[in-house]
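Researcher: Quick sanity check before group meeting.
Model: Go ahead. Protein one:
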Amino acid sequence: MSKKYFLKFPGGQQGFSLVEVVLAMAVLGVLGVSLLSLLGNSFTFGINAGQKSQALGLTQEKMEQFSAMTYEQILDEAKHIDQNFSCPGGTVQSCKEKVPGFEQMERSFQIECVEVQAAGYSIPTFKITVETVYTGAGQGSAVLTSYLRGKR
């Protein structure tokens, strides 16, 4: 009875040599390490994007709080930080504060009172800058600046 082989190799070979097997394993190993490195980097980028998105949302939330305030409320907020704050020309910087529920986020804001010239009038306006800094798997910040007159 003759042996039947499922795979027929050219030239009458019956298998791979040890060198060919080792070379194939080396190539597969290099490809596997490259893929694992790529997956690790994409995971890190995903975490950083999530943190940046949260920081931007928290920054927008604080800016919206300022947008809803009246002129007097913004002025009171500035004077709460520095009693000598004056308008126009005054600038005040808040301390960094932890954001509740987000232990790796710190938020601060700056209020500057400037005069905007419009149609021959000088209008006192607040230049408000809000910054949220995040740390953890990645580091970065989200910053928004807006000019607000305050609600009347």
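Researcher: Fine. The other one?
Model: Protein two, sequence then structure:
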Amino acid sequence: MDYCTIPRPAKGEKMSEYGGAGRFPVPRDMTRSEIQTAIARFTDRPRAGVTRVRWHRDSRRHGYLIDQFITEYTKSGRSDEYGGDAVGRIRFACEVLEAVRGRLAKGFPLGIRVLSNEDQ
């Protein structure tokens, strides 16, 4: 199979080349308690020998949790501090990064990769 010529599925559609069919479900809004639990879980698994931490944000292909807060694609109806404008939508990512940073040694590399081609 030539992966360079696989057509991209429509936004929100699973890739048939990988056994998928149909649309991905739209995620439901998490409660504040679930949000705090998720943030804690990002910090509870330190690994020996890890030299850096980086998150990859790409909703079109992966639907990662952090991205589900950031992207407008999931069309969250949140009206609390985690929804609405870009500042609200990025809040979860910032809280995760702050929590993880709090568990790392000073100067330990920590980043988040944000793709700018969500609509392509």
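Researcher: One line on it for the slide.
Model: The beta strands are 53-57, 110-114.
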